[in-house]
Write a structure and sequence with these properties.
Strand content: 5-15%
Number of helices: 7
Shape: globular
Structural class: alpha+beta
Radius of gyration: 18 Å
Strand order of the largest sheet: 3-2-1-4
Number of strands: 4
Length: about 180
């Protein structure tokens, strides 16, 4: 339980400097850090869409009130969707990776596996997969250390060095899943 409490309070620290994209102060009914915290916690617990995230928040509201402000209760799925559609994705990614790196201790000689995937239902009407991601997985920590979107006109080989630079892993064994067609 101590690890969970450390991880959750750490989220607030690492995302506190993320710029709030909402421009009208009177429309900010929910704290940005509350929205991010609920989203991360819900996704870790298996939430797959904005409805799931709202439902998670409602179900865990009593517990969430012990670590968050929640001045107007749990945000709606529309609020989660709207706020995340406005957030600068690069800044969000930097905050997320900073948080993950603070939680994951990578030691020399550990294995970091790199793999690329096409995201299902990311294309037209959910039929074509057009979004490609490269992920770094830490075997020792049993978690994804970071992800990077592959440029649409490129392949995962070009994204791997950028992901490794972003993660700043040193002294680790890097494995890459490569398939020839």
């Amino acid at each position: 339980m101590v690890f969970v409490e450390k991880a959750m309070s750490s989220i607030l620290d690492h995302f506190s400097n993320l710029a709030d994209p909402r421009t009208k102060e009177h429309k900010k009914e929910h704290e940005l850090t509350d929205i991010i915290f609920i989203t991360v916690a819900a996704v870790i617990c298996g939430a797959e869409d904005w409805y799931d995230i709202e439902e998670y928040g409602q179900y865990k509201e009593d517990w969430l009130k012990t670590v968050l402000e929640l001045p107007n209760g749990i945000p709606s799925q529309d609020t989660f969707n709207r706020v995340f559609s406005l957030i600068d994705p690069v800044a969000l990614q930097q905050c997320f990776i900073s948080w993950v790196q603070s939680m994951a201790k990578i030691s020399e000689g550990q294995i970091v596996s790199i793999d690329g995937k096409r995201l299902r239902n990311s294309g037209e009407q959910g039929k074509k997969a057009i979004l490609h991601m490269v992920s770094a997985w830490s075997n020792a920590n049993n978690m994804v250390l970071g992800q990077l979107k592959v440029n649409g006109k490129s392949n995962e080989i070009t994204a791997i060095p950028a992901l490794l630079d972003l993660l700043m892993v040193q002294g680790c064994w890097i494995t890459i899943d490569v398939r020839r067609r």
